[in-house]
Amino acid sequence: MKELAIISGKGGTGKTSISAALIALQKDCVSVDCDVDAANLYLLLNPELKSQYDFYHGQKYIINSEKCTSCGKCVKLCKFNAISDDFVIDPIGCEGCSVCAFFCPEQAISGYDNNCGEVYLGEIQKGPVVYARLDPGEGNSGLLVAKLREEAKKMASSNNLDTIILDGPPGIGCPVISTITGVKLVLAVTEPNISALHDLKRVLELADHFRIKALVCINRADINPEITSEIKDFCRKKNITIAGEINSDNAFLHAQRQGKDIITYNGTMENPDTINEIKKLNEIILNEL
Amino acid sequence: MNIAIASGKGGTGKTTISVALSEYITKKGYNVVLADCDVEEPNTALFLNLGNKKTETVSVDIPKLNSIQCIGCSACEEICKFSSIAMVNNLPLIFPDLCHSCGGCVLVCPTGALYYEKVPIGIFEQAKKGSLHYLGGLLNLGKIQTATIISYVKDKAKKIKSDFVIFDSPPGTSCPFVETVNGCDHLILVTEPTPFGLNDLKLSVEAARAMNLDFSVLINKNDEKEKTNIIEKFCKTEGIHIIATIPYEREIAFAYSTGDFKKTFINRYSNELENIAVFLKKINKKED
Amino acid sequence: MKIAVTATGETMDATIDPRFGRAAGFIIFDTSDESFIYMGNPVKLESVQGAGIQTAKNIIDSGAKKVITGNVGPKAFTTLNTAGIEIYTGASGTVKEALKALDSGNLEKTESANVSGHW
Known about the structure:
CATH architecture of the largest domain in chain A: 3-Layer(aba) Sandwich
Radius of gyration of chain C: 13 Å
Largest sheet of chain A: 9 strands, mixed
Shape of chain A: elongated
CATH topology of the largest domain in chain A: Rossmann fold
Helix content of chain A: 25-40%
Order of helices and strands of chain A: EHEHEHHEEHEHEHEHEHHH
CATH superfamily of chain C: Dinitrogenase iron-molybdenum cofactor biosynthesis domain
Number of domains of chain A: 2
CATH superfamily of the largest domain in chain A: P-loop containing nucleotide triphosphate hydrolases
CATH class of chain C: Alpha Beta
Number of strands of chain C: 5
Number of helices of chain A: 11
Order of helices and strands of chain C: EEEHEHEH
Number of helices of chain C: 3
Shape of chain C: globular
Strand order of the largest sheet of chain C: 3-2-1-4-5
Distance between the termini of chain A: 9 Å
Distance between the termini of chain C: 32 Å
Radius of gyration of chain A: 22 Å
Largest sheet of chain C: 5 strands, mixed
Strand content of chain C: 15-25%
Structural class of chain C: alpha/beta
CATH architecture of chain C: 2-Layer Sandwich
Structural class of chain A: alpha/beta
CATH class of the largest domain in chain A: Alpha Beta
Oligomer: heterotrimer
């Protein structure tokens, strides 16, 4: 199974737009939106929803006020400051460690299964689409991403597909790690400004830490040609291939407004090279996979 | 007054606004703390021309085993909800990467064979420039304790005497965002007038309401030529106050890309920044 | 001595499962009388965290002293290693072929995990 993960470090560089374009260029594949915090890929893929289910992980705890004698032991023991002075457990702050319940002298605290989001299984012409919604405030994004990846592998197996494309979240934390572990290739999408370059370095180091090969694509390269050069120099020194260089193009926004990826959009491009550049990017990726 | 600046979608301009607003308010003579809570990818400092920063290590408590005292009772494995302890050969095998530092295993151990060891997960840093006090954190690569460092930064912010604290939040609506914005006096949700921007704004609004936070929306990178602004429409329907609208200008985008945008931005948008400052002062007075 | 081999099916002709933590099941082969049993892996795909550790513990309980698999992740590796179980990765083909390869010294003992974990 060949998995490609598209990440960026800094948010807003164009991961989802490029992911959707790459998906449109595949013969077939499984598409996964690993940005469970703020899933956007479905807005461009428009999958037909086939099934969905609640995602549960771990427990949250609740105090039975009738049994509670206000001894305060739970408040003292809670490492996450999730219990108020009037003995109410904040479900957003609660990490589900069970320590309060274990030590409550009145057995007044009990656990309940934590519904932290929903998993959606959909379909487009290219193949299955797996995405999710993590409930606001939840701390299980990495685990939900891992769940989506397992579903994607199941889908790939049962549909005889060998390519999985993962649209990743921003950052370098838990959900990003969950997105990239074990993938064959990482594509880091960046743009020419000092924040994005700073974050690109971190994200490439992360890929290296997990011993995964990475390619870089510079989006909106024309905004600052000097920094575009700087990115290229950096990648050259690290032996990292610049697999794509795409200039700003309003067409991306028009396509997004129409709920289409840039390839399917097939409308007037500000820049005639954009589509070819994306096709070239795809060729390089397929070669690596 | 504690102000948080957040966004569901990444790249909408949180840091731009945080930096510009901090600078603008300090110029008015106030003491401002600018806390960068995007500890996975902190960028604020790149725009501030700070001198040397003072750093501290941030650690978490991870259990360690004194095997001689262990009697193999498995109480630690049983209480651990995070699969970080596995009994092998009658001794607990600890997996630090999965540990949430809840304290359970150390508390239940009947012989005291488990004790805490401090394991570094990142750093905290700070620097002062005139009446602007910068605080930030950086999570070590491969670590997952984002919220711990954010909490550390927030605790430090509390200890500094200031008129305004501006918390620059990480993107998204999950744990790191919640940790950052929790307890703030006012939350500004920065968005852009695109379908992605609207989609993610709706998620942020849901989160803000679930947390009972006072919030408003700032529309950034606005396309003045577009007749219907989908964000304005949404805010009108939901009764959400729009604190400012800032147009997209390629010149500003270029200035931002070089890291040297403060002067240009503040000059160009002084009206908008003034409106924001006035609005914030108004809410602050109301709460007094 | 018992040897655990990851397996996609219940017989000696089943192919090796490339995964360890979420392997479909294991063939536990006893070298003393060349008998074997099939052990399904209850650690399902649904288990999002600690799958490798739990599977490793099940293998320890089975009495196997060696494990043959395609891949093994870091937590499963640490657990098996701590229990003194030898791990052989990079195996492919059928269970029967893998055992033969081990016997003729064609499989190398692994000193560390060869894939990163999924959690």
